[in-house]
């Protein structure tokens, strides 16, 4: 009997031990399946979103079993935070969107993981599209390795900011659509003096703008003098040579016109410091008659205000043909893995899950059934577009991953109305011949640069940007004298304008040589 009890006790203890071990094993498996990664996440300046709390990324976590701790970084702080992270010696697993000098951090410093050997197995969605239309050709760095996952959104768009004028105000004052800089100046004066908003107040500031950008910024003004000014200041001339926009003929005349506008209160001089958030508040007050912008629909503009405006082609100054900076479909930076990445397969699987067709389209447009639906031919189409920036509180939009070459995108997606609106403006500008022939974005994103070249270009751009913007602000506020303009020209030379242009020319020549060699 005692032997039986003893045997039973031993059996019971063994059973308890097995149960405990089973529980521990289950706990270990749960820990193994709960993958957590870290990411430096680019965020637009006018966003204040907790990416980890977005509906989209919660759904993605359920689908992939990968949790990501995001460190959001505003556009203005992005380059600094990248540098600080690498300087600290403690890297995030992933770097998401924004921009990244892959030559410097990948080729030169070896801080980014080359992805070529992993893509076929761990990123089948992405890998299958890389060869379409040759879109993947520009991704490899100077050492032939690919250090980033590309971002490509082919939308049939050829410029950032189109020009819009208040058609309601024109009709009320009996004015034609302006086609020259002189006509536009007269229209702006009439907007200022004629009380076109009908409130009995002299509150119209006809031209509203931001400062140093090509969407709503004054950089677009220089197109009237045949100068396709952009945020990098370089463009490819019709002779195939790289040009530096602030040194071109007509730049001074553009600066003088901007001063005239400020002096006559036709342009809000606060544009020197105001960002897009304040700009849109002012436009929505119904006190603006003219601006440049991405589009009217599905934007921050009040619908009642947007309905008053129509798109016009850029005006031209006497003796010049209008030329606006050209946008183009080029592969941008989507994501990179640092060499300290703790789980490469899981990271790539998480990224590739975002590029599955439906998931990718949801990331741009919102959930299926609510904002996105399917047509009879199986393509996706937008059902509803939330007002303002509400969509960014649900899905990442352009701050997420996207890779859609033309051929593939046309097969799976019917463009939303606001995208068709933008495409129509682009077609209008193309037909009018008011865009530079070769997009400057080829210099920025496609022409290969060594790590040393890219670092020097970035350094020089910072110096030149400070000189150019400081001078423009001064010209707008105080006018342009011979002495002041001569000092500006010398300051650009001292800041490295010639070297900056030459570095881009070297990279462009290298690109052309490679293109010739591939024939």
Query: Strand portion, in percent?
Result: 5-15%
> How would you characterize the largest beta sheet?
6 strands, mixed
Rg for CA atoms: 27 Å
Work out the helix count: 19
Rounded to the nearest angstrom, the distance between the terminal CA atoms is 93 Å
Uncertain stretches of 5 or more adjacent residues: 1-32
**How do the strands of the widest beta sheet line up side by side?**
2-1-3-10-4-13
What's the overall average pLDDT, rounded? 91
Overall shape? globular
Structural class, from secondary structure content?
Answer: alpha/beta
The tally of beta strands, per DSSP, is 14
Q: What helical percentage do the residues reach?
A: 40-55%
Characterization of the model:
- This protein has about 525 residues and is of the alpha/beta class.
- The chain has 19 helices and 14 strands.
- The strands form four sheets. The protein has a six-stranded mixed sheet with strand order 2-1-3-10-4-13.
- Helix 17 runs antiparallel to helix 18 and helix 17 (about 450-480) packs across helix 19.
- The model is unreliable at about 1-30 (pLDDT under 50).
């Amino acid at each position: 009997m005692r032997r039986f009890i003893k045997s039973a006790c031993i059996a019971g203890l063994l059973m308890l031990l097995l149960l405990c071990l089973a529980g521990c094993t289950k706990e270990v498996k749960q820990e193994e399946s709960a993958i957590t990664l870290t990411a430096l996440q680019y965020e637009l300046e006018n966003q204040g979103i907790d990416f980890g709390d977005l509906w989209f990324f919660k759904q993605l976590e359920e689908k992939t079993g990968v949790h990501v701790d995001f460190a959001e970084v505003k556009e203005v702080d992005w380059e600094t935070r990248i540098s600080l992270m690498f300087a600290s010696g403690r890297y995030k697993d992933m770097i998401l969107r924004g921009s990244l000098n892959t030559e410097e951090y990948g080729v030169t410093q070896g801080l980014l993981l080359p992805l070529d050997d992993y893509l076929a197995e761990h990123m089948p969605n992405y890998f299958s599209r890389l060869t379409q239309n040759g879109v993947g050709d520009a991704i490899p760095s100077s050492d032939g390795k690919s250090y980033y996952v590309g971002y490509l959104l082919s939308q049939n768009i050829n410029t950032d900011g189109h020009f819009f004028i208040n058609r309601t105000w024109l009709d009320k004052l009996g004015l034609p659509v302006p086609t020259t800089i002189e006509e536009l100046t007269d229209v702006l004066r009439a907007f200022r003096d004629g009380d076109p908003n009908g409130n009995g107040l002299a509150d119209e500031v006809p031209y509203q703008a931001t400062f140093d950008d090509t969407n709503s910024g004054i950089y677009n003004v220089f197109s009237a003098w045949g100068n396709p000014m952009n945020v990098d200041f370089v463009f490819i001339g019709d002779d195939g040579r790289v040009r530096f926009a602030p040194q071109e003929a007509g730049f001074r005349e553009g600066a003088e016109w901007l001063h005239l506008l400020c002096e006559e209160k036709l342009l809000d001089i606060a544009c020197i410091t105001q960002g897009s958030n304040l700009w849109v508040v002012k436009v929505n007050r119904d006190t603006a008659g003219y601006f440049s912008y991405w589009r009217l629909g599905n934007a921050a503009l009040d619908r009642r205000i947007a309905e008053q405006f129509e798109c016009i082609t850029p005006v031209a100054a006497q003796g010049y043909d209008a030329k606006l900076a050209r946008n183009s479909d080029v592969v941008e930076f989507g994501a990179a893995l640092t060499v300290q990445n703790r789980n490469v397969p899981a990271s790539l699987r998480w990224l590739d899950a975002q590029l599955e067709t439906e998931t990718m389209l949801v990331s741009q447009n919102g959930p299926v059934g609510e904002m996105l639906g399917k047509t009879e031919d199986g393509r996706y189409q937008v059902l509803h577009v939330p007002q303002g920036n509400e969509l960014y509180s649900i899905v990442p939009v352009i701050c997420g991953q996207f890779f859609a070459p033309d051929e593939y995108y046309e097969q799976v997606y019917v463009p939303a109305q606001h995208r068709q609106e933008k495409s129509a403006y682009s077609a209008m500008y193309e037909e009018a011949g008011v865009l530079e022939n070769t997009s400057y974005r080829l210099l920025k994103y496609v022409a290969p640069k060594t790590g040393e070249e890219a670092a020097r270009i970035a350094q020089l751009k910072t110096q030149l940007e400070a000189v150019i913007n400081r001078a423009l602000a001064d010209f707008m506020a105080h006018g342009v004298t011979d002495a002041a303009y001569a000092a500006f020209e010398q300051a650009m030379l001292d800041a490295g304008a010639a070297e900056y242009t030459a570095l881009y020319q070297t990279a462009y020549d290298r690109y052309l040589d490679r293109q010739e060699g591939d024939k």
